[in-house]
Amino acid sequence: MIISADELSRIDKLLLDRDAVDPDEARRRRAEHGLAIVAGDDVAASYDLQLALMTAVNLGVRVFAGKCTVHLPSQLSEAANKIRAAEGRSIGEALRLLGAQLAHDEQPAPATLHLFLGSGPAGARALRLTFDGWRVAVGPANDLPRMRERPWCPIAGNALAAIGVGEAFAHFARISVTATRRVVSLSLWLPNSSMEDDAGVGHPVLEVPGDIALFGLGHLGQAYLWAYCALAHEDAGQVTVQLCDDDAVEKANLETGAIATESWLTKLKTRMTANWLENRGFRTRLVERRIDEHFRRTSEEPVVALSGFDDNRPRQWLAGAGYSAVFDSGLGGEAMNFDSIAFSAWPNPRPPADIWPLETNAQLAARQARQRVLVGETGYSELEGDECGRLILAGKSVAVPFVGALAACIVLSELLKAVNGCPTHHSIRMQACSIAVTSANAILAAKTATSIRGLSTRHFAGINL
Predict the structure, then answer these.
(1) Residue 312 lies in a domain
(2) Domain encompassing residue 176
């Protein structure tokens, strides 16, 4: 088999690196497993549940190699689509455009694991997705009662879908023996709070962020854009999104990117994401170059930046580029840590070099040694090509899109709270497949409309779990 680094699925690479599974076989297994979703008729009236449904399908189609079936009443299929990110006037049309197969007025087979939203009878393998305010929860329907589902956080549906699809994938890929058989929850308001802590429900927010600059338009950047579209912008035409990237779309980007399609291949990410945003009513500005230590924000550009880099050096440069606030996340890239999420905000009590340290020579040598082991002892030996080519393949990151989607929820939640003058966090560390928050450190942000020009640098004491 000949496979280039630009073509290797970052999802299949997990099974290749961990279990020496041939990429073609890994894709076949993902498609054979698929994802089933059941939606009740009351989803039609709930923005949050519609968002969860659309996001789960968008992620499920990518994670499970195009196989996602939605079981829903006919009247729900005909109801109006409320989700700006998803094209289509009706829910059914939007789901089909996202790649779902629809099963009207049918239920999945009794033994089939499925995500379950809204009302209706729950099957034995139903995994309920529910929420209340800023807290979301996923678990077996028999163990997790439906929560109050108060619509206080506009991206709660995104987080629900990311966790639900993550549970289904963790079960499929044997990442956790308890996946889909436990209740997991996360508060986007207080990530380190327990499900029993009422404070984690948070409060309603009244304002949403306006103009932003977005750096990096790959896995993370596209997840940010999908979540950003979920915010209740009254007039998207008054909002400008500045897009910065210099790469073209590769085949491997189609599964990890939240909005990329086949028609994007070989085209610049800036142009394609701009088209996507403009079709949804937003204004865009493009920066098609790499940033360096000389990069500076001008007085006419957005004051808030979202960072989706995969390298710490540009993160350090961005912190000194003149933005009032930078919201950044980074993901693990190997089979052992692909689900790790590291969120950091700037300003921050620590200097940029401490927040985003550069790789040492020893760390680089250790990483390269792990790659040589992969090439010599796993399924890479079955891939045609020379050793150099196989080492390039081994150096590519493992990436599964529900991880980026959850990271985007953390980033956008902190931005939302900062805009509304609510307590925020300067750092959060967590694992997506266990929803284990390992640390969350708090910072107090002052309210300043949508520009966040007065972002405070006063800090609460750090909380380490």
Answers:
(1) yes
(2) 34-188
